């Protein structure tokens, strides 16, 4: 539940347009709602600045849909990650959008986009993870710009877009293979850099471990490193940094 909805409810009580009992009905599921197989954290947005997001992988289709319907009833919005298109096809919620590249489903989200988050990928194969970050940050209320396929194998592609690096507040860099791009970007900008290793690559990439280790051992100080393929985590962190910068 968003701060704005609670303030609206409390102001309505103050003005006498709704009863205290009605307000209690709106607020009674704080901080969470128990639906047997899940305890839905409606209070998370108030505590953390971002609502609970439904991770679909490992859940049954019925469980994902029930959680989504419960969240929608309270906030008129939700975000589902790692979702099969069949879940989207089974949802009977108006306004739901399926994002095929990132395999995310969104309803609602913040309409006013603020600040500037830039998302880069080393290659085209890294786009699904980058799109997960982009959908997440945009859903939370950040203005997002993407710049794809600008890896170190053709560094001139990145250098042709140096102006874009100057215009943003925070940068997410998504790369597989040897994971070199975040170090290059970090050496070109004073903006916060969030590195996301992907599982893209041949045998000795070890499903993203090589890129992860490279990013953790970058000689550029101050780079934040996410887990392998964790575009969602990068999108949340980028949004939190973005909203702090005035």
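^ Assign residues to that structure.
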């Amino acid at each position: 539940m968003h701060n704005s909805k609670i303030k609206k409810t409390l102001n309505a009580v103050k003005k006498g347009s709704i009863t205290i009992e009605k307000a209690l009905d709106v607020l009674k599921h704080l901080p969470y709602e128990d639906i047997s197989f899940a305890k839905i954290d409606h209070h998370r947005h108030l505590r953390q600045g971002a609502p609970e997001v439904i991770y679909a992988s490992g859940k049954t289709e019925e469980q994902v849909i029930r959680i989504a319907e419960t969240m929608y009833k309270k906030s008129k919005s939700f975000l589902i990650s790692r979702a099969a298109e069949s879940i989207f096809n089974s949802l009977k919620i108006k306004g739901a959008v399926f994002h095929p590249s990132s395999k995310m489903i969104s309803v609602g989200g913040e309409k006013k986009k603020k600040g500037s988050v830039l998302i880069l990928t080393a290659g085209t194969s890294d786009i699904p993870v980058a799109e997960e970050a982009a959908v997440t940050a945009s859903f939370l209320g950040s203005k997002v710009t993407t710049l794809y396929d600008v890896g170190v194998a053709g560094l001139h592609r990145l250098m042709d877009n140096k102006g874009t690096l100057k215009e943003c507040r925070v940068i997410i860099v998504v790369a597989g293979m040897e994971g070199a791009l975040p170090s290059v970007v970090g050496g070109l900008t004073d903006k916060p850099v969030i590195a996301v290793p992907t599982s893209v690559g041949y045998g000795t990439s070890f499903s993203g471990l090589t890129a992860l280790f490279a990013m953790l051992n970058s000689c550029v100080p101050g780079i934040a490193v996410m887990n392998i393929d964790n575009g969602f985590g990068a999108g949340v962190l980028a949004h939190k940094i973005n909203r702090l910068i005035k």
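Residues 1-30 form one domain.
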